[in-house]
Design a protein that fits this description.
Helix content: 55-70%
Shape: elongated
Distance between the termini: 49 Å
């Protein structure tokens, strides 16, 4: 959709609305116009030509409000910003409490990396290993009292595994991550 001009998009939207008001299903309209069904659905929500909107129109009722997901990205950001500013009852954003167990967090990330490798998502596994390495470097900088894992060389092992990650087969990579994370495979 990104390559189409504004005029073309407006013409497609108008044609989609005309067909919807004529009784054609949105999925059929999407296929006929070669536009994603989610795009047609967003246009229908914004333009109030979904089946529910058309039924409300026939019944003489006002259209349903446009949901945030159907708004254009810029309008959605403005709506979310206004809702956060003016609504004192809105719940605070849920943030994960900070962990002081950096070594445990690093080990958890290494286990997640292992699962990602098994799923064939090498880039994501590499990102997890990089995050684990960052946590261990932070812990190392905190000093000897806070650095309970410094003597194990865990950070260096993670760094070495990351450096070798693109030169290893999937099986070798799984074995290396298991070794680093201290995970044993009990699947038999």
């Amino acid at each position: 959709m990104g390559e189409r001009s504004r005029d073309t998009k407006e013409a497609l939207q108008a044609e989609a609305e005309r067909r919807a008001r004529g009784g054609e299903a949105l999925t059929a309209i999407a296929a006929g116009l070669q536009v994603s069904p989610s795009t047609i659905g967003r246009w229908a929500a914004r333009g109030h030509f979904r089946q529910t909107d058309l039924q409300r129109e026939r019944d003489g009722l006002p259209p349903l409000p446009v949901a945030a997901w159907a708004l254009a990205p810029s309008a959605r950001k403005q709506t979310e910003a206004k809702a956060g500013e003016t609504d004192p009852q809105s719940p605070p954003k849920c943030e994960r409490p900070p962990s002081t167990d950096l070594a445990g967090e690093a080990a958890a990330l290494a286990r997640e990396a292992l699962a990602l490798v098994r799923a064939g998502r090498i880039k994501s596994a590499d990102d997890k290993l990089r995050a684990a390495d960052r946590l261990l470097r932070i812990q190392k900088r905190l000093g000897p009292a806070e650095n309970k894992i410094a003597a194990t060389g865990y950070s260096e092992k993670v760094q070495a595994a990351r450096d070798r990650i693109f030169n290893m087969s999937k099986e070798d990579l799984v074995a290396e991550i298991k070794r680093i994370a201290g995970v044993t495979d009990n699947r038999g």
